[in-house]
Every structure is written in structure tokens, then in C-alpha cells.
Amino acid sequence: MGELLKHVDSPSDVKRLSIKELKQLAAEIREFILASLSKTGGHLASNLGAVELTLALHYCFDFPEDRLVWDVGHQCYTHKIITGRKHQFDRLRKAHGISGYPDPAESEYDLFKVGHAGTAIPCAIGLALGEQIKQASNDSDPRRVVAMVGDASIGNGLAFEGLNNLSLVKRQLLILLNDNSMAIDATVGATATYFSRIRLSHTYDDIRRTTRTILEHVPKIGRSMDGAVERIKKHLRMVIRPPSQLFEALNIPYFGPVDGHDLDSLIQLFTALKEVDHPVLLHAYTKKGQGFSPACSGPSKFHSTGPFQMNGDAVTASGKKGLPTYTEAFGDHLTRLAREDERIVAITSAMGGGTGLGNFRKEFPERFYDVGIAESAAVDIAAGLAHSGLRPVICIYSTFLQRAYDQIFQEVALQKLPVIFCIDRAGFVGPDGATHHGVMDIGYLRMMPNMVLTAPATEIEMGLALEFALHQDQAVVIRYPKDSVPEARLIGKACEVPFEMGRSVSIGDVDDADVIIVSFGSLLSCALGAQERLIKQDGTRVGVINARFAAPVDERIAALLNQGKRIVTLEDHRLACGFGSAVLEMASQLDLPEARLNAIRILGAPRKFIGEDARRQQLMDAGINADTIVETVQAMLHPTEADERPDGPETIHAQTRAGGGSA
User: Fold this and answer.
1) 3-state SS string over 444-473?
2) Average pLDDT in the 548-565 region?
3) Which of the four pLDDT bands, split at 50, 70 and 90, describes residue 60?
4) How far is CA 453 from CA 423, 442, 549, 579, 603, in A?
5) 261: nearest Cα among 545, 77, 56
6) Which pLDDT score, from 0 to 100, does residue 236 have?
7) Residue 640 in 3-state DSSP?
8) d(CA 426, CA 442)
9) Per-residue pLDDT averaged across 310-331, rounded?
10) 647: pLDDT confidence band, cut at 50, 70 and 90?
11) Tens digits of per-residue pLDDT, 209-247?
12) Average pLDDT for the chain
């Protein structure tokens, strides 16, 4: 750890430094981030690019008395380091450590636990309006408000809704636009093109002159801003073609572009602009990956990394290459099928690489669409493509697809259009934690008519699920986790049969079984492991079914229940409204005696937010593992007296059956 950084434990320590020392601190923070993330992994490139902006903000404002709102939040590492959390970076994105995103549970300097784009501007407006109302009723000094927004987020619909309502604020509010021309992949869309054109048209001297012009014309503290903005605009037009038309059209005072790595100028700008008594937007250019050439040249690769080893500028990933992931299997199968079916087009929301579409994009560039951080628009574009007779495959992480719920309902399900939703990162996602878990998609999708929900258990099933989806005349959902596919030898040949609507697949003989484990999706190998242990332990007759479908559910499962079989369902999803709930709903239609309904147990995620950890450990903590399956089966077959008491486990099972309990 650097000599200056050793003594920085709060923003007050930063404020005591000279500008020269601040520049040294910035270099030490970059070294610290690199050293820490090489061991833990995390969001590297974006944080290397935001060091000076963050230091200057904390130098000029008085957080947490003043209010700082982050958009997405994955660029907050410098903020965490200087607000007393640097000694916890060895536990970054790990259990009992610190989050990779802002988290109010960690520090009073974090206002919102946030991991989605577009939220900072409207949240900041709310904070500013709150201060505006309080200021009108008393004479207390108002808190200043700052929103830190990335250039990819500014194109999000929610951000524009915020900008559209900025006129509500009649007091200070600084929107800091951190423009690095990158989201996770290169930023796309008209807004991104506009910013890129501006960036390419400016030399470094242009940017320096812009900064000087702003500083010369921002009035000193206590003087009115009336007329100052117009004077700045006039002089900027004389120096360079102003990039402010986009914001001027919305009547938003715009300043910039300025150099986001120039600490001297940033401190002068923030000192002046924090006294402006109405909202303003400051546009700063930064370099994603600044100070680390591999991240500068490959910012997408270094957006979010696992642990890595450094040898100068040479970087190698730590760990061995294992089995392919579900994401890789999806990308390979979709590219293969696209060679055979010209109707296939792929759509993603700033996640081309993350969703495994890299090869598809290279091979079929004219059939690939990245719409940026605009999930709602992505769904409606897919609806239009489907209406045109094409087969759109829309690839979005589960946590982000939640943002497009209404469009899925209105423009796809209601119209009965054959859009294929490939939902990556379904279930627990590991170190990104609660903001990114995909444990609610079954619940909000299976209630919609004209929607088919599937989940492949293996690499082969991924291809089979896609082939099935391409032949349907309605929407099909294919959900899968951020995980490696299981070894083929663990599953056998049973999962190689083609998908049929609403039909499950039995792994071995289930007719002779006393208990049947019904697994939905990627947890099949876990179910098979529990089956093997139960057979070895006491010869329990246990069958396993690979459900394949959560809507419609195979009626054979209810028929087996009616035959006297005990059933345990398994899913990487919330207990409420998930696959197990679907089985219960189907069973309730059969008018079964209560004893038969009591023969169902559901294993899934509890109704609470799960923090950062390895995916495997998150599943263990949620009780979604072979140990819990074995214990559940044994309790069903050999109930104790406690199990029969109203306050015993049977009551817990009854609550679970209702969909409201926790694992």
C-alpha cells in the first residue's frame, strides 16, 4: 500500500492533501486496485478510469452530509477505499466482506444499494426536491446533491425520464457525466455516436481551453448565475463547436467537455459549480482502464474479471479452464442454428460478450443488434421483428430483464408473438450479489398466457431447447445460470431426446420409486448426486425427473403424486411463484386428499436477499444442495414425532407449500 494511502481512512484525510499529493494518491489507489483485484477479481477498467473524478468530488464536497448518488455503482471502488473500507478489499465481493457496489449497510457514505443503470438522475432529483422542501420550511443549510452517471447509462430511458423532469428542481444539483465511450461493450446508439463524434473532434488543447472558459465565466461564490450560462455558451461557441445541443434542447445548463483525469481543473470546477443554485451537467472525458495498458486496450475484457496474475503489462487469468459454461454452450448452439435458419436474429442490451454472442456477432453482423442499456426497447424491437416473420432471440441477464416486464406482457405475450427469451444469469450469480441474482423470473413470466418456460440441464439440452423454441408460434423462455455445464457422464443419455411441449424426462425408473426428485434446470446433477447417496445409504428407492418445463408443467408429475409417490421439487429460484409452486397449483386441481398434498416438498431460494459469495456457497446457504435433498427425503420417509406436531417441521413444510416460507 502506498505511503499516502496508508494514512487515508476518510474524506477528511483527502482534504488535507495538496494537489501534488492528490495526484500521488491517485497513482497509489490505482496500484492498490490492481493488486487487490488480481487476487479477488472485480470491476477493474471502470474503476481505474474514475479515480480522479472520485477524489475531486470528495475533496470539494462534504459527503455524507452532501449526497452522492451512483449510477450502476460498479465504478465506486475509489469511493470505498477513501471512506474507510480499504482494509476490507481482500474480501471484495465475498461472504462477510464488502460489496462491489454501493451498500448503505457498509457505510453512511453510500445512499442506495444499486447495481442497475439509469437510476441516479431520478433518485438525485428526489433527494434535491426533499432538500428543496425542507429548505423552504426552515433556514438550515441545504445539502448539496451529486449524481455520478456513466455515458452508457445516460442513454437509458429512465435517465432520460429524469432529465425530462429536472426542471422540478429549483436548487443546486450536479449531474456528473463520466464519458469513457464504453459500457461493458462499446457504447452503442445515437447518444453514444453523438458523444463519440464530439470526443473525436476535440484535441486535448480544445478540452483545456473549454475548462479555462468555464472557470473564467462561472461567477464567484455569492454572485448570481443569471447570464453566466449564456456567457459561457457564447465563449464556447467561439472556441469549439459546443457539444451541448442535446442538453440545451432539454433546457439543461451544460458544461464541458473537460478532462476527467485533470485533478487541478476538476477541483476548481467542482468548487465553482457546487455553488450554482440550479441543476447543471458537467461532461468529463475519462479513459476506462487508465493507468493499466491491458485494460486501456481491452476495456471489455477487463470490465469484470476473476483473479489474474500480472507480469508487467502481461496478464494471465488465474485458475484452470474447466468445462464450458451455459453461456458458451448457448452462443455455440445459436451460431450453429443461425447457419441453417436465416430467420434467426439476436438482440442484446449492452451485453454482447457477456451473453455469449461474440461469435454470432462476427459471423452474422447484419443479424445482430445491441441496443445499449435499454431492455424495454430490446423487447419491443424483438416483438416487431417477430411480427415481420423473423425469429428474434433476445439475450438479457435475468436481473436486467425485470426492467422490461410490461413490454413482455403487452407487446409479446398479449400478441402471442414467437420471441425467444434466452435468460442468462438465472438463479444465484455469485459475487455480484443481491442486485444481480436472477431468482424471480419464473414467477413473473409463468403467470403470463402464451409463454412457455424451459430450462436446459446440460449442454446438449441447450441446443435441443433452442431447436424446440424455433418451431413454436408463441414466446419461449430458456433460462440458465452463470455456471459450467455438468459433465455428460454424470447425466447419461436420457437428456438427449428432443424437447416436446410440456414433457419431462425421467432419469432411470420412476414407477418403482418411493420418492421422486423433480429438478428444474441446471440442478439436475445435484438431484442425481442425492439419489446416488440415498441408494447407497439405505437402499431408498429414489427416482429423478428432469422437468424441462415450468410452463406448462408435465401433468405426469401430478399423476405420480396421485399414485402415492412422494415428490421433492428442486429449483434455483425463489420458493414463491417458482417451479415448485407450479407443481402445487397443478396438484390442487386434482382434488387430491390432504395426505397426498402433504407428500410434496419444495426446495428453492428463501424470501430474502442473498449477499455476495461464490454461487456454490449461495446454493448451499439457501438449502439447494444434495445434503438438503437427502435430509428432506429421509424426513419424508421416516417422520419423527416432532414432524407430526403442529409446531414441528410439518408446519414449516405447509408454509413452504403456500409459497411464503423460507428454506
Assistant:
1) HHHCCCCEEEECCCCHHHHHHHHHHHHCCC
2) 91
3) very high
4) 11, 8, 6, 10, 19
5) 56
6) 42
7) coil
8) 9
9) 78
10) very low
11) 777 777 776 655 334 444 554 554 444 443 444 556 778
12) 86
The DSSP code sequence of 460-519 is HHHHHHHHHHHT-SSEEEEE--SSBPPPHHHH-SGGGSPP-TT--EEES--TT-SEEEEE
**pLDDT at position 306:** 76
Q: Where in the chain is the domain with CATH 3.40.50.970?
A: 61-76+91-291, 326-479
Spatial distance between the Cα atoms of 446 and 469, rounded to a whole number of angstroms? 16
Distances, alpha carbon 254 to alpha carbons 121, 152, 161, 248, in Å: 15, 18, 17, 7
Q: What is the pLDDT of residues 427-459, one digit of tens each?
A: 999 998 899 999 999 999 999 999 999 999 999
Spot the catalytic one: 85, 86, 233, 288.
288
Cell output for 649: 417441521
What pLDDT shows up at residue 663? 30
> From the candidates 403, 446, 479, 657, which is the catalytic residue?
403
d(CA 189, CA 185): 12
Write phi, then psi, for 568 (nearest 5 degrees).
-120, 120
Is 231 part of the annotated catalytic residue set?
no
Whether the predicted pLDDT of 651 surpasses 60: no
User: 91 an active-site residue?
Assistant: no
Residue 310 vs residues 297, 315, 317, 422: alpha-carbon distances, Å: 16, 5, 9, 35
Which CATH topology does 506-657 take? Rossmann fold (3.40.50)
Q: Which of 52, 106, 131, 375 is catalytic?
A: 375
Q: Determine the pLDDT at residue 500.
A: 97
- CA distance between the termini of the chain: 42
User: How much is the pLDDT for 312?
Assistant: 66
* Predicted TM-score (pTM) of this structure: 0.83
The three-class DSSP label of residue 520 is coil
Q: Where in the chain is the domain with CATH 3.40.50.920?
A: 506-657
Place of cell 468530488: 57
To which residue does cell 435430509 refer? Answer: 631
Those residues with Cβ within 8 angstroms of residue 238's Cβ, 6 or more apart along the chain or in another chain = none
- DSSP per residue, 556-576: HHHHHHHTT-EEEEEEEEEST
* 8 Å CB contact between 93 and 42: yes
Write the DSSP assignment of 285-347 as a string of letters: E--TTTT-HHHHH-TTTTSSB--EEEETTEEEESS---SPBHHHHHHHHHHHHHHH-TTEEEE
Report percent pLDDT > 90 for the chain. 59
326-479 architecture in CATH?
Answer: 3-Layer(aba) Sandwich (3.40)
- Residue 307 confidence class, pLDDT cut points 50, 70, 90: confident
**Distance between CA atoms of residues 69 and 130, nearest Å:** 14
- The SS3 of residue 376 is helix
Per-residue pLDDT, averaged over 301-316, amounts to 70
Does pLDDT of 177 surpass 80? yes
Closest CA to 77 of 104, 113, 44: 44
pLDDT tens-digit map of 274-300 = 888 899 999 998 987 787 777 676 666
Q: φ, ψ for residue 17 (rounded to 5)?
A: -85, 155
For 506-518, how does the pLDDT look when each residue is reduced to its tens digit (9 = 90+)? Answer: 998 888 898 999 9
- CA 16, CA 10: separation in Å to the nearest integer? 11
CA 34 to mean position of chain CA atoms: 23
Q: Are 425 and 398 in contact (CB under 8 A)?
A: yes
CATH C-level class of 61-76+91-291: alpha beta
375 flagged as catalytic: yes
**CA dihedral over 325, 327, 328, 334, signed as positive or negative:** positive
